[in-house]
Design goal:
Elements (H helix, E strand, L loop, with lengths): L1 H7 L2 H21 L7 H6 L5 E10 L2 E10 L6 H14 L15 E8 L3 E2 L8 H4 L6 E6 L2 E5 L13 H11 L13 E5 L1 E6 L6 E3 L3
Antiparallel strand pairs: 1-2, 1-3, 3-8, 4-7, 5-6, 5-7, 8-9
Helix pairs in contact: 2-4
Length: 211
């Protein structure tokens, strides 16, 4: 699936989409209105995808998470999803105060386009350790009304070197579940892949991120 995403979405597309996401955020922070989607962009990016926008604030050589919101499922067209979650990442992430326009001078934007989540079927919870690959898979964990998601880049970003068990535990905790809930037979675990684009500097070069 991720190969298909790579074939359909190029670096040129990533550059266009991140630039639009930044314009949308900064327009909203300036005048409390979203940017207008150009007709050619709306037409070109009409396919449906899951999408996450991550905002990272630069602090020397480190990046500090400042907001991350997205749609795990391919519910909206790619451009509509980015149109919505770019604003949400700046002002609706409950973990952080609203981003200010001044902060955007020191924030880099990361865009992750997702493949549809796939339920991992196992007979024994230890099979998850073999069926999940660090650096390729993102995870969604569901138990009852609890749901948590971590993107594929999380286990390796910022000097982290998680193994699969650690990744599972942190995804459980993201869902406000005990860390060992992934071993419960009633817990559902989904995996997905993603193609990731990111700004290296605010309004600067945009690259295809390798993880």
């Amino acid at each position: 699936m991720v190969k298909m995403v790579h074939e359909k979405i190029t670096l040129e597309d990533g550059i266009t989409l991140i630039k639009f996401a930044r314009e949308n955020i900064e327009t909203y922070l300036k005048i409390s209105k979203k940017a207008i989607i150009p007709d050619e962009i709306e037409k070109k990016y009409s396919g449906k995808y899951g999408v996450f926008i991550t905002l990272n604030k630069l602090d020397g050589n480190k990046k500090m998470l400042r907001g991350c919101i997205g749609y795990p499922e391919p519910t909206f067209s790619l451009i509509k999803a980015i149109y919505n979650v770019s604003i949400s990442s700046a002002i609706e992430d409950p973990r952080f105060p609203n981003v200010t326009l001044e902060e955007m001078d020191n924030i880099v934007i990361e865009l992750t386009v997702l493949t549809p989540p796939e339920l991992i079927e196992v007979n024994d919870s230890n099979e998850y350790l073999e069926k999940i690959k660090i650096g390729r898979d993102g995870l969604i964990i569901e138990y009852g009304m609890r749901r948590g998601l971590l993107l594929p880049q999380v286990p390796v970003d910022d000097g982290r070197n998680w193994d699969v068990k650690t990744f599972l535990e942190h995804t459980c905790m993201k869902a406000w579940l005990p860390a060992d809930s992934w071993m419960n037979k009633d817990t559902k675990i989904y995996k997905f892949e993603g193609i990731i684009f990111e700004e290296l500097t605010p309004r600067g070069e945009i690259i295809l991120k390798e993880i």
